[in-house]
Amino acid sequence: MNGTKTDRGRRVVLWRHGQTAWNLERRFQGSTDIELTETGLGQARRAARLLAALKPDAIIASDLRRAAATADELAVLTRLEVTHDAALRETYAGAWQGLTHDEILAQYGEQYTAWKRGEPVRRGGGELETEVADRAAPVVLNHADKLPDGGTLVVVSHGGTIRTTIGRLLGLDAHHWEGLGGLSNCCWSVLGEGARGWRLLEHNAGTLPEPVLGDDD
């Protein structure tokens, strides 16, 4: 699924939510509904001022609180209504959710290693990465198709969901999605439309580089 092979000059900005307490603890959030810290809220406000300069035409967001609150900061500045969709939630990771990185390595080391090798793994008995892309990418494409020529869609979601969606829209084999790397809190990636489909214009953009905390959450 590469999207429609046209070149209407549209852009999709995929924006990760701000910091949460579980990000700081390197605790896997998945679909657990964790709210932003005060720092995360400040990150969202700062990033929103930058993204508002892109004059987006539409904003869609995961309905989890950390993403919805991040999206709200941009909505205030742009006066756009946010469309929330559960299909943009982070990967459901079953028994991994709520565990720290070290606890996952200790309890599910083989599963973690297989996932890092690029094998299709139901982490903690949850979703495959391809299943996350199956639910999230069509939502992004559907809203992108509604944009005017040259329009911009902002998608507020989660690190893992954004990576899998980018991989799907670029037509990359799922084995290579991990090669895209993670997004820091409140940083974003930009896809632009070309004659042969979507292409990656920016990745993990913000201003100065920041560490990636709690990538898949």
Automatic annotation (TrEMBL):
Active site, UniProt feature: 17 (tele-phosphohistidine intermediate), 90 (proton donor/acceptor)
Record-level Gene Ontology MF annotations: phosphatase activity
Any Gene Ontology CC annotation: cytoplasm
Residues the entry annotates as binding substrate: 16-23, 66
Pfam families: His_Phos_1
InterPro entries: His_Pase_superF_clade-1, His_PPase_superfam, PG/BPGM_mutase_AS, PGM_Phosphatase
Signal peptide: none
Superkingdom classification of source: Bacteria
Gene3D superfamilies assigned to the protein according to its UniProt record, in alphabetical order: Phosphoglycerate mutase-like
SMART domains to which the protein is assigned, alphabetical: PGAM (SM00855)
PROSITE patterns: PG_MUTASE
Protein name, UniProt field: Phosphoglycerate mutase
PANTHER family referenced in this protein's UniProt entry, alphabetically: BROAD-SPECIFICITY PHOSPHATASE YOR283W-RELATED, GLUCOSYL-3-PHOSPHOGLYCERATE PHOSPHATASE
